[in-house]
Structure formats: structure tokens, C-alpha cells
Amino acid sequence: MPRHSRFLIPLAVAVACAPASTPETRPVPERAPPVPGPGPVTAPPASIVRDPLEGRSAFRYAAGTRNYEIFSEAKIELASDTAARSETVRLSALVTLTFETLSDSLLAVSGTVSEYEVLRGEAIPAPDSTLPSTATFNASITPVGRLVSLVGDTAGCNPQEPLLAVGQRAIIATPNNLDAGARWSDSVSTTVCRGGTPITTGSVRDYEVEAREMVDGVPVARVRRRETFTLAGSSSVRGRHVAIVGRGSSSAILRFDLARGLLLSEEGTSETALTVSSPRSQAEFRQREATKLSLRNP
Fold first, then answer.
1. pLDDT tens profile 67-86
2. Count of the separate structural domains present in the chain
3. Contact by Cβ (8 Å): 145, 174
4. Is residue 102 part of a domain?
5. Per-residue b/e over 100-113, b at no fewer than 16 CB within 10 Å?
6. N or C: which end of the chain has fewer CB within 10 A?
């Protein structure tokens, strides 16, 4: 923010009047009243250059409908004593969110995930059942995106769970103001089925507003998110017990439109190390993923 300064220049004027010397035989005239001099002079205030973003750091999700395109590409490597190979998984989807104001402290969100598509390398087996291409959910959130309730999340292995997880990525909880330098943290635990195995992920996320910018005349907050997470799950596959454990980290840049009250974009990368164990074998995997979420027709 610009610093504003004021300058005050004091001016003191002393006016001394000395009486004239006269003979004793002549009357002494009365002393003339002092002539008032100019009073203190104040310089005009320095011109103030205001920050165009001043007063625009408050953020609230606004009512309306917005469409997001989500794309991710993950490279999965399997390392062994004799060889190393990798495969690529690409995911794309369209997420539509409609926000409706219920009260000063509550918003209703209707979400739809469509055009969901996953492309796998030849070495990665397809799931036992075909994944759906659409899913819907409803949620209640506070004006700054904190989840109050969610309908659509199901226990167990529901084919729609991966789609719902994608759709909820477009709702980010924030503080009341996104001032430059503001920091906050949150944590979340989710369970999503992957290949018939429920995987529980626990994440700790740290956020920092790196800057506030004017983009095409619109005030925007640029936020960096750093995340660490662990995951674990187990199931029986063809009569054999399989356990999955792993940990990873990610970093992403998010941009919020402060004027229109919406998330503009997210772009980030993550790395995950996984161990898959069965009674007869153990395999180590490493996954590197790049993800991009962008507002369609902003």
C-alpha cells in the first residue's frame, strides 16, 4: 500500500513597534496597535496516489453459475531390480457449480460433473466396472467456502466417488479477507475407491496470499497452496489381501476474482510415493501429476 505523508510548514512573524522619542514638554502619543501579521501557513497536502486494490481484499462466493474445465496428467513409474517402466494416466472433466444465497451465513451449491474421461496406458488395468461419465452433488457452504453439509458423498466403493472428488476441487475455503501476506491452514480426510480399493487420504494444507493483482481491470488474489498428505487402504482382490500405503506433497497456485466472488483457476503439481503389498509381493510406485482447473468462458 502506498504511504501517505503530510507536511506542515510553520511560519512565525513577530512585529515589534518602538515608540518615538519625544521631549518631555510634548504629550506622548498612544502606542499604535500592532499590525497583525500573517498567521501560520499550511502547505497544501501532498497528492495521494491510492492503491487501485485498496478495500478490495474481502472475498465472498457470489450467487451464480460457473463452469470449470479440469485436466490432469499423471506419470506412474514402477521400479524393480531388473527394469523400470512408466505409464501415463490422463483425466478430463467439466464441472458446473450453481451457487444460491440462502442467508447471510449460508450458500447452497448444486454441482454436476460431466464429460468425465480417463485415458490409461496399456499396462494399467481398467476397473472392473465402467466408470460413469456424469455425477451430481449438493452442498451447503459458508460465504467463504467452508463446507457445512454434503449430499452425494457415499460410504464404500461407489463408482461416482472419483467424479465427486473432482467436482469438489472447485470449492476452496478461504478467510474473510485475502490481503497480501494472509496465511491460513486446513486439514481434510477423504475416502475414495481406486480399482475397487477404498483409499483414505489425510491432507494438511497451508495457504498464503502471494499478491493481489489487477487482471483486465479486475482485482485478483494470487494464492499459493502447499500440501502434504498420507494415504492408506486395503482390500481383497481375487482372494488375496492387498494393502496400499503412501505419502506425498503438492504445490499449486490459485487465483480468486475478488470483484465477482469466484475461483478463477488452479494450476499445480504433486508427487506421491506408493507401496502396494500382498502376501507374496511388494511393489514401489512413484507418481508425478500436473493438474489444471480453469474457468470456461469467464
1. 999 999 999 998 665 566 78
2. 1
3. yes
4. yes
5. eeeeeeebbbebbb
6. N
Which residue is it, cell 498420507? 230
Judge contact between 15 and 37, C-beta under 8 A.
yes
Q: Is the residue at 260 inside a domain?
A: yes
One-letter identity of residue 91: L
**How confident is the model over 10-33, as a mean pLDDT?**
40
For residues 72 and 272, give the distance between their C-alpha atoms in angstroms, rounded to a whole number: 14
Per-residue pLDDT reduced to its tens digit, 73-129: 999 998 665 566 788 999 999 999 999 999 999 999 999 999 999 988 766 665 555
Decide if 119 is inside a domain: yes
DSSP 69-129: EEEEEEEEEEE-SS-EEEEEEEEEEEEEEEEEEEETTEEEEEEEEEEEEEE--TTSPPPSS
Is 149 strand, coil or helix? strand
Residue showing cell 510553520: 10
Q: Which three cell numbers stand for residue 19?
A: 515608540
* Dmax (CA) of the chain: 137
Q: How confident is the model at residue 7 (pLDDT cuts 50, 70, 90)?
A: very low
Of 93, 95, 96, residue with least CA distance to 71: 93
Average pLDDT, the chain: 81
Q: Got the DSSP string for 225-289?
A: EEEEEEEEEEEEETTEEEEEEEEEEEEEEEEEETTTTEEEEEEEEEEEEEEEEETTEEEEEEEEE
The closest of 297, 294, 203 to 247, measured between CA atoms, is 203
Is the residue at 149 inside a domain? yes
C-alpha cell at 179: 490481503
Q: Which three cell numbers stand for residue 51?
A: 492503491
- Find all residues with CB under 8 Å of 34, minimum gap 6, and list them: 15, 17
Phi and psi at residue 166, to the nearest 5°: -65, -45
Q: Would you mind telling me the total number of residues written for the chain in this entry?
A: 298
